[in-house]
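seq:
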Amino acid sequence: MGKNNRKNKLNKSDLQRKSGELPQKNEGLKKPQKIVFGISLLDNLQGQDYEDWEENKFLSKALSKLQGLCSMTMNEAKQQQIIKEYTSKIPEGSTFEHPKHIAEHINWASIRVQGKIRIIGFVEENYIFQIVFLDKEHEFYPSVKKNT
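struct:
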């Protein structure tokens, strides 16, 4: 029986793969999650607001920085030191206070926009950066000036 089947000639159409015949297996494959931003928790009572940053020409720089970060994973941004994570306590000497609408246990993080300019917030689910403060004078994490 097997020998007789060999004699039957196959057409080219019999050998061509038909689209959609083989199921594609995507299970177990997880794409790295790119960074996204939340702005609903922004505290306008501390730091600055959008209008201040727009007037001082920081807003467009900040948006460009955020746009670039959206193509990165959180690990990539941390490795390149664009995003730095800190502890849950606001440092001593800071002009900021912990907002009542933010959970006490979150770990604060900052994004360096340019020079002293920072965006302060925290990271959720390892890819969502929740923006809480706009800090144009680096007052959230005051640093000691070196060699001055």
